Amino acid sequence: MSNGFEVDYAKVYFTIKTGIPVLGDIKITQTLIVSWIVMIILTGLCIFLTRNLKVENISKRQAFAEMLVETGNNFVRNNTGGNKFDKLIPFVSALFATSVISNLISLIGLRSPTADLSTEAAWAVVVFVMITSTKIKTNGFGGYLKGFTTPIAVMTPFNILSELATPVSMACRHFGNILSGVVIDGLIYWALGLASAALLKLIPGAVGAFLSNIPILGLGIPAVTGVYFDWFSGCMQAFIFCMLTVMYIANAAEEG
Amino acid sequence: MGDFQLLARGIALAGCGIGAGCALIAGIGPGIGEGTAVSKALEAIGRQPECKGDVTGTMLLGCAVAETTGIYGFVTGLLLIFVAPGMFMNYLQ
Amino acid sequence: MNEKNKAGKSLWLFIALLALFVAVLFYTGYTKSVTEDQDLVTLVPWTFIIQICNLFLQVYLIKKFLFKPINDILQKRQDLADKEIREAREAKTEADSLKEQYESSLTNAHAEAAQIVSDAQREAQNKADTLVRDAQEEVAGIKARAAADIEQEKKKAINEAKDEISSLAMDIAGKVVEKEINEADHKKLIEDFISKVGA
Q1: Burial class (CB within 10 angstroms; exposed 0-12, middle 13-18, buried 19+) of A58
Q2: Predicted ipTM?
Q3: Contact (Cβ atoms closer than 8 angstroms) between residue A215 and residue A189
């Protein structure tokens, strides 16, 4: 039983030497492995849900799949006000599903890929590129650049800053929430391990010394805090990330 | 390791700890903000109980967005506790 | 049947891939010693790039395996519903026109029946009227004839009476006067007298 508290770092499994100066070596970390597992789970779920599709007399499974698709459609259409962004539906759905499964996969003992800033940064940058391209498509490149000088030219640096803050804040919000869950879960396990060790050392002899290595208190109690930090926070952050994506893109298309 | 280096490391670690503590002050803002948001939402629900679902959803969204600054503070604190000391220790060798 | 086999195959493929990944995970993570840890808050370029690729791959997969089949099915159902509604509407229109037709023919039949009844009534009335009028005319004719007969009889009786009276008067006068007057003059005289008396 280690007495020091250690956070659950992402482990690096392989290192592939590339020799590319800026990017460095490819490190196959726990983040990547788990995110591939998440992708396989999601794809398998999709394949499973869409087996034996029928037009009439549908099964519960198909009804669930249709409900998911309808929810995605309605989410994007309600928040953008129309069918203009129907191309965005699979993207937003994939983002949401990946995010939720990634956040909740910590429940089965794997490390969430979303507890790694690289993941959220990647998503946020993709969203940022989409927002910018929508703005340029709506207003033209000149109009996009001119948009930075509103309302007055002095505001330009602040406008650029606020533009850049969008992906940063999106990434950090999601990352911070999930990482706080990871850290607090780690703290709770550590504390409960210490407590159960202290408790079981009261049993005299070799039995107590053996049992004190097993964190018995860590069995049930973390589930209670997990309700907030894993379930609520995980679902909420995924929802907010998608909501912000849709809203930013819808706003970008309206500015013209 | 000389006394000077030891002192420098001690100061660095102390700075990291104090900084982490200060960073968590950022939790005050979201606390107040979310409290205000929830109280307003409760007022709204009290006035129009039929809008409960809409108000709750929007409130949760707003709360989560308002929480961002607190999360920034938290991330900064984490950086100061888990990342910065290692960096300083490497630097001060 | 083909679709089913295909779906079954992809599911088996998925299960095999999952098993493979779990095996890799256990092999790398739990049997080999892990060399190093990543920093807690850090931005790794390759992870970043691979995650972007992962996201787009996920979008493609979710589009292919969830959205396309479900949207196809939804579209099919929509088409089916549209067809049913259209057919129902057509059937309703047809039924409406039929109903109208029936109703109009029914109205016509009613009118015809009423016409027939009224015709019959009028005819019957006419016939009755004719009968009554004929009877009345006949009665009137009979009456008139009877009256004429009576008149004639009366006249005849009066003439007979006149003749009787004139011959009676002549006899009386002859007896009284005892004088034989010329028969002709005599007669004339008497007729004058009678006509004067009768006037």
Answers
A1: middle
A2: 0.85
A3: yes
For A47, the closest chain C residue by CA position comes to C65
Summarised one tens digit per residue, pLDDT across range C94-128 is 999 999 999 999 999 999 999 999 999 999 999 99
Contact assessment for residue A124 and residue A168, using Cβ atoms and an 8 Å cutoff: yes
Residue contact B78–C39, C-beta within 8 A? no
As a whole number of angstroms, the distance between CA A31 and CA C38 comes to 10
What does the pLDDT look like over C142-197, one tens digit per residue?
999 999 999 999 999 998 888 888 888 878 877 766 656 677 777 887 788 888 87
For tokens 């964190």, what's the residue?
Answer: A215
Query: Across-strand partners of C34?
Result: none
Chain B residues lying within 8 Å of C36, measured CB to CB: none
Alpha carbon distances (Å) from A19 to A23, C16, C37: 9, 34, 21
Angle, CA of A122, A109 and A71, to the nearest 5°:
55
Q: How far is A116 from chain B (nearest CA, A)?
A: 12
- One-character DSSP codes across C102-142: HHHHHHHHHHHHHHHHHHHHHHHHHHHHHHHHHHHHHHHHH
Measure Cα distances from A93 to A72, B61, C33 in Å.
Answer: 6, 18, 37
Chain C residue with the nearest C-alpha to that of A114: C51
Tell me which chain C residue has its CA closest to the CA of residue B77. Answer: C41
CB contact under 8 A, A172 and B75: yes
Q: Where are the beta strands (DSSP E) in chain A?
A: 11-16, 26-29
pTM of the model: 0.70
The string of DSSP letters for C12-53 reads: HHHHHHHHHHHHHHHIIIIISPP-EE--SS---HHHHHHHHH
| CA–CA dist C7, A186 (Å, integer) | 41
CA gap C190, C184 in Å, rounded: 10
- Chains with 3 or more CB pairs under 8 A to chain C: A, B
3-state class percentages of chain A: helix first, strand second, coil last, to nearest 5: 75, 5, 20
Residue type, C71: N
| % helix, strand, coil for chain C, step of 5 | 90, 0, 10
The two tokens of residue C44 are 């790794």
How far apart are the C-alpha atoms of B4 and B7, rounded to whole Å? 5
DSSP letters, A33-56, are HHHHHHHHHHHHHHHHHTTT--SS
Around C57, how many Cα atoms within 13 Å sit in the side-chain half-sphere?
13
